[in-house]
Write a structure and sequence with these properties.
Blueprint lengths: L7 H26 L6 H29 L3
């Protein structure tokens, strides 16, 4: 994704979507991590959620950088 291909409004929209997704993943991560009984499947799911959460955070940082340098 480069700023030449997207408008400022499209970047802001995607940024808002990613922030919402990150918040949902953060909540899910907390719920999984706080389970009283933690199965191997829970651990796998938690690792997947954490990777998705990190990917969203990285993309948020990238889009924020694009916005700062837009124009």
């Amino acid at each position: 994704m480069s700023q030449e291909n997207f408008s400022k409004e499209q970047i802001v929209e995607k940024l808002n979507q990613l922030r919402e997704e990150h918040a949902k993943l953060d909540k899910l991560s907390g719920e999984l991590a706080s389970k009283a009984v933690f199965t191997p499947q829970d651990e796998t799911e938690l690792n997947i959620v954490r990777r998705k959460k990190l990917r969203a955070k990285d993309m948020i940082a990238y889009l924020e950088h694009l916005l700062k340098n837009f124009d």
